[in-house]
Write a structure and sequence with these properties.
The chain has 1224 residues and is of the alpha+beta class. 42% of the residues lie in helices and 29% in strands. The chain has 6 helices and 61 strands. The C terminus is likely disordered.
Length: 1224
């Protein structure tokens, strides 16, 4: 015996009547209510977390998230209005707020302060009380006030000032107030008077600016408690089917220059950094942005909810109202908007520029999947696929995938759907409508009806486990139909009231039914007769379930008990703790039993059942559960309710046995109509053709781009050469300017050096004088410090000695007095003891005078005692005076010590000043030394620069000459390269012409081959005819020769001749006619065959030519690219070789003519006694340089041969490009 475990896995649905029902916890997580739970939904991972409501709750009415995103407050209605605060990190309850100051049973709005420490809650009718809480403190509101004095004037929203914890705003029907909390009281702030309106919403745009929306489409902007500006929001009115115009939600319209537009209520206002958003009827959101003009805010964009085009025209007005956006929230980074509509849907749109274009209309997208928005009436689970089907009063049938938590299909109909059943294969669905029962195909993207049954208002229908039969309820009759032949195989009659539930046994041999008449019947499918019954007229049954073996039935109804029925007898009745049970479901393993309640909770019952029952309750739906099913593998529990939510639970028994022994492999088959398949094939072919055309076009565009690229490259090369020349000219000009600037800087440097020498001498003299003065001050201060120290030490010794002497004297004096007093006290004690003995003896002897004597003695001793006490007091006072004197002496000693310390401190300060002055002197000396060294370094550097400048002047002449020589060498090479480019271009053109000629010749050859083949076939036919004629002629000659023997007998000869005539002449005509017909047919066939072969060959040839042409083009392009790359590489290598040659010539000074000129110049200069112009090169170095030059020349020759070989490479058609003339 155990209680099954049920863990909430996923929820499909939204509770749309909760105030502020959506909020961002972070960029990826949103919070929204569903049923009786708060859902934390991750937008990216699609995962959900859950916060359960309190037990016996009447449902959520409002929620609010703290600005720091750590806590959430949920208001729930009940006997007492309750606010529960949850921690979003642990998902556990943090605090529960209740109070007796509110008469209403619910709160309509909640809001947290900017620092998340305070909470304001607005109660509902009849008192409309506003409470101000410090929610972290004890459970008591800090202040309260009634916001509406009229019970009928509703209050809708409350919110805090974003910059003030004590100020908040309240709006409602005829209510617009701001309050301020001050010292335990809430005071209303004065606001400019305006006419009473129905204020629906508001938002704080800044610390002193509020925007308020009304039901007439007006938005009022208040700044500093004053009415600043009005904004009018209107939505376009679309013509209806009668040619008129469809009014908006507000039911009012106004005429403008642009046509008729309806006034719609402003339902929600939300602030963001650039302005604010407002929703205004029919699923429209307007974005207003700040401006610097008088309008303050200007309408910038319009966002709409996409309404499906297949919606019924008769329900257009209703759909417009259902799509009204009630609440909005913006992500912390303001990149995403999440909105909720009146029909319980979640929508999203990004605020980035890619998704919203300024001035254009944008559309919302559904977040995750669309939900039901009206009571769900039907639920069923598929066996072979992970599918769940639901139907609702919102006229839709939806197919959900519980494996990946998604919506696979949705279909909207004209009528309301009351029941739904999924075929075990997952390919068909049975739906009961108000007019008919329809069997429909589940296609890949649609649900299409293919058979209708005349069963009106079918509230229950169910396929058998094998899928070959289905049962449908028609009033109080259960009709059985064959799934594939649609025959009515049986009618189960016996119920006196409407049948509320039918269930098949696992072997499909029985059907269990129950109804409002209090009867639970067991039917045989084969005989259509009743085999068992249990009737309890006081109970109206709503659901039944049968055990796997089919022997036990579990039923629930209006009597608040769970019944176990076996053998037509009620075996157990388990009371449900004063709760109506609406649904019951048992697992196929027979180990888990679940029931649903009218309050929306599910109970996992202890199974087998016990009396009283034991269960675990799970809060889920916000209203009554209408259907409950368990998946075929006993892993999942599904529930739906009147709150339009679908809940999915992961279930298992206590031992963790959640799956059956044999796992089920889900089917992947789908249905698709033939027309859809043909359309998809046609579309695929068109797309393939389009892809081919695009590829061809792309190749053509690539060729054009390559040609343009080559032209641009050529232009850029010429441009860069021109720029290089201009830069060289600029370089010469800059060098001239540099020489002038160097000369100018040299003169300024000399002036600075002279000025520095003068300043240095002045500084040295001034520093010497300061140093002498400081040294004299130091000597004086040192002498003064020594004198003061000696004097202070002398005074300290005298004070210490006098203090010690006075202390000794006072100590001796007080010790003497203390000894005297002690002696007197002992004597007084002795005397007192003696007197007591005398008193005792006198007391014994004289009893009559005892009282009088006792009084005398008492008075005497009291007097003495007073005297002694006075003496003691006097001594105590003298002792206190002495102690005070002693303390004053100690204070004087401490003061002297502090003076000594101050003097020592001053002495240390003076020593520090002396040391700092010494350090300054050393620093100045070092600075003087460093400056001397700097001056020497600069002088050396100036000398080096002068020498370097002389050398540069020498090299300048050499470099100018070499540059001129190199220019002369570069120009012919560049002309050669240009000629080569032109030649390559001509070769490309000629190559294209050759390809075209080859293609034309191939076509002619193919055509000639076809003609030759046709001629051969014609020749064979003619040869056959000749052969036949020769054979016929041979037979005729034989017959003629046979007739010759009757030449003597004319009669016989005539007869034979006639026979010959009949034989050959008539047959010849017939043969000729037949032969002509046969020849015509053969010729026709031959011509047709020839034409077909020609067309086929032309097609093959065209395809082949296209492939060859494409391949040739690609190959030629690749060869051209490779040739261009090789040419560029050769140019680069040539340039590198030239650079190396020039660098070697420059480094080794190997230009022979130059060296000879330098040697001659050096010899002439040496003769004159001047230094040489350039370095003197040894003969060995000249030989080595010549070898290097020879190596470079051979390398250049090799590169030229490679280039010539590349250009003469054979093409694919065996031809060669014309030879390229390379300049030597």
């Amino acid at each position: 015996m155990s209680i099954a475990i049920a863990n909430l896995r996923h929820v499909f649905g939204l509770k749309g009547d909760v105030a502020n029902n959506v909020a961002f916890q972070d960029e990826q997580t949103i919070i929204y209510p569903s049923g009786s739970n708060c859902i934390l939904y991750n937008i990216e991972t699609k995962m959900q977390k859950f916060i359960s409501s309190i037990e016996k709750s009447g449902g959520m009415t409002a929620m609010a998230l703290t600005p720091n995103k750590r806590y959430i407050a949920v208001a729930e209605k009940g006997e007492k209005a309750t606010i529960t605060i949850y921690d979003l990190q642990t998902l556990r309850k943090k605090k529960v707020l209740t109070t007796t100051e509110v008469q209403s049973q619910q709160y309509v709005s909640l809001a947290f302060s900017p620092d998340s420490k305070y909470l304001v809650s607005q109660g509902a009718r009849p008192d409309w009380t506003l409470l101000y809480w410090a929610w972290e403190k004890p459970n008591k509101p800090m202040a309260s006030i009634r916001t509406s004095t009229n019970v009928s004037n509703e209050v809708y929203q409350v919110s805090f000032n974003p910059n003030d914890n004590a100020q908040f705003c309240v709006v409602g029907n005829g209510v617009f107030k701001t309050f301020k909390y001050n010292e335990g009281n809430l005071k209303a702030n004065p606001i400019q008077k305006i006419e009473p309106q129905n204020f629906l919403c508001h938002s704080w745009l800044s610390e002193d600016r509020i925007i308020v929306g009304t039901d007439t489409g007006r938005m009022l902007l208040f700044e500093g408690q004053e009415h600043k500006k009005d904004f009018h929001v209107s939505s376009p009115v679309a013509p209806d089917s009668t040619g008129g115009e469809r009014s908006g939600t507000a039911g009012q319209s106004e005429t403008s220059e642009s046509g008729m537009r309806s006034q719609t209520p402003v339902l929600c206002v939300t602030k963001y950094s650039k302005g604010f958003l407002c929703s205004a009827g029919n699923g429209i959101v307007y974005m207003y942005e700040k401006t610097d003009e008088r309008e303050l805010y200007k309408k910038a964009r319009e966002i709409r909810i996409p309404i499906s085009a297949d919606s019924a025209q008769a329900t257009a007005n209703m759909k417009g109202a259902l799509h009204e956006i009630m609440h909005m929230t913006i992500s912390p980074s303001e990149e995403t908007i999440i909105a909720t509509s009146r029909n319980n849907q979640l929508y999203t749109i990004g605020l980035t520029g890619a998704e919203i274009s300024k001035g254009e209309q944008s559309l919302f997208e559904t977040l995750s999947q669309p939900f039901h928005y009206d009571q769900i009436t039907g639920l069923d689970v598929c066996i072979r696929k992970p599918l769940v089907s639901t139907c609702s009063l919102d006229r839709t049938v939806r197919i959900w995938n519980y494996e990946n938590n998604s919506l696979d299909l949705t279909k909207e109909f004209q009528e309301e759907a009351f029941s739904v059943a999924l075929h075990p294969s997952g390919l068909y669905v049975l739906v009961g409508f108000s007019d008919k029962l329809r069997l429909m195909n589940i296609l890949i993207d649609d649900i299409q009806p293919f058979k209708e049954f005349t069963i009106r208002g079918c509230r229950e229908c169910q396929f058998s486990n094998g899928g070959h039969l289905f049962a449908a309820v028609h009033g109080n009759v259960i009709q059985l139909y064959a799934t594939y032949t649609f025959e009515n195989v049986g009618n189960l009659k016996g119920h006196n009231g409407k049948v509320r539930s039918i269930v098949w046994s696992q072997d499909d041999s029985k059907i269990i039914s129950c109804g409002v008449d209090g009867a639970v019947y067991e039917w045989s499918v084969y005989t259509s007769k009743r085999e068992g019954e249990s009737v309890l007229k006081t109970c109206s049954y709503t659901c039944a379930a049968v055990s796997p073996e089919g022997g036990t039935t579990f039923a629930v109804g209006s009597d608040k008990t769970l019944k176990e029925i076996s053998d037509s007898q009620i075996q157990r009745e388990v009371p449900a703790a004063d709760t109506v049970l609406t649904q019951v479901a048992i697992s196929r393993s027979g180990r888990m039993l679940f029931v649903g309640t009218a309050q929306g909770s599910i109970r996992a019952m202890k199974f087998p059942l016990t009396v009283p029952g034991e269960w675990t309750e799970h809060q889920c739906h916000a209203s009554s559960i209408t259907k409950m099913r368990i998946s075929y593998d006993d892993s999942f529990l599904f529930t739906v309710g009147e709150d339009a939510c679908l809940y999915t639970f992961k279930i298992m028994d206590k031992e963790g046995r959640g799956l059956k022994a044999k796992d089920i492999t889900y089917a992947e088959e789908i249905l698709i109509s033939k027309s859809d398949l043909q359309e998809k094939d046609t579309a695929m072919k068109e797309l393939k053709t389009r892809v081919y055309e695009l590829n061809m076009e792309n190749e053509y565009q690539l060729r054009l781009k390559d040609m343009n690229h080559h032209e641009k490259t050529k232009e850029l090369t010429e441009k860069f050469i021109q720029e290089m020349e201009s830069l060289k000219t600029k370089n010469q000009v800059l060098k001239t300017d540099k020489d002038k600037e160097e000369a100018k800087h040299e003169e300024e440097r000399q002036e600075l050096i002279e000025r520095q020498h003068l300043e240095l001498r002045d500084l040295e003299s001034a520093n010497n004088q300061k140093l002498m003065a400081e040294y004299e001050k130091y000597q004086e201060l040192q002498a003064k410090s020594q004198r003061m120290q000696e004097e202070y030490e002398r005074q300290l010794a005298a004070k210490s000695e006098s203090h010690k002497q006075a202390l000794r004297e006072q100590t001796e004096q007080y010790e003497t007095k203390l000894h005297e007093k002690i002696g007197q006290l002992e004597a007084a004690h002795d005397e007192m003891r003696q007197t007591m003995r005398i008193h005792e003896e006198t007391k014994k002897q004289i009893e009559e005078d005892a009282d009088r004597e006792i009084l005398d003695i008492k008075n005497m001793y009291e007097r003495r005692l007073r005297e002694e006490k006075e003496g003691n007091m006097r001594l105590t006072g003298e002792t206190g005076i002495m102690k005070k004197k002693f303390k004053s002496q100690e204070q004087e000693i401490e003061a002297l010590k502090s003076d000594i310390n101050n003097l020592n401190t001053e002495k240390n300060k003076l020593n520090g000043v002396i040391k700092s002055l010494e350090k300054d002197i050393l620093g100045l000396k070092k600075e003087i030394q460093e400056r001397d060294e700097t001056i020497q370094d600069k002088e050396k550097r100036i000398y080096d620069l002068k020498k370097k400048n002389q050398e540069l002047e020498k090299f300048k002449f050499v470099l100018d000459y070499k540059i001129r020589e190199l220019k002369k060498q570069i120009e012919p090479r560049e002309n050669d390269i240009k000629a080569m480019k032109d030649q390559i271009q001509e070769m490309d053109t000629e190559l294209e012409r050759y390809n075209k000629n080859n293609t034309a010749l191939d076509l002619k050859i193919e055509e000639s081959k076809q003609k030759l083949k046709a001629n051969k076939e014609e020749m064979a036919v003619q040869r056959q005819k000749v052969h036949d004629m020769e054979a016929e002629l041979k037979r005729f000659r034989t017959d003629v020769s046979n007739c010759v023997q009757y030449i003597q007998d004319p009669q016989k000869l005539k007869t034979k001749i006639v026979e010959l005539n009949k034989k050959y002449v008539q047959s010849e005509q017939a043969v000729e006619a037949a032969g002509m017909d046969v020849d015509i047919q053969k010729e026709y066939a031959r011509q047709r065959d020839h034409l077909e072969r020609s067309v086929a060959s032309f097609r093959k040839k065209l395809t082949k030519d296209q492939q060859i042409h494409r391949a040739d083009n690609v190959r030629i392009m690749q060869e051209n690219v490779s040739l261009i790359k090789e040419i560029n590489d050769l140019r680069r290598e040539l340039k590198i070789a030239r650079t190396q040659i020039s660098s070697l010539k420059y480094a080794l000074n190997l230009d022979q003519n130059k060296k000879v000129h330098d040697l001659e110049a050096n010899s002439n200069v040496l003769k004159k006694g001047a230094p040489p112009i350039g370095p003197i090169v040894a003969p060995e170095e000249l030989d080595q340089t010549k070898k290097i030059v020879e190596i470079q020349k051979s390398e250049i020759k090799r590169l030229r041969d490679e280039l010539r070989h590349t250009l003469n490479r054979p093409l694919s058609n065996g031809q060669r490009l014309p030879p390229l003339e390379v300049a030597q």
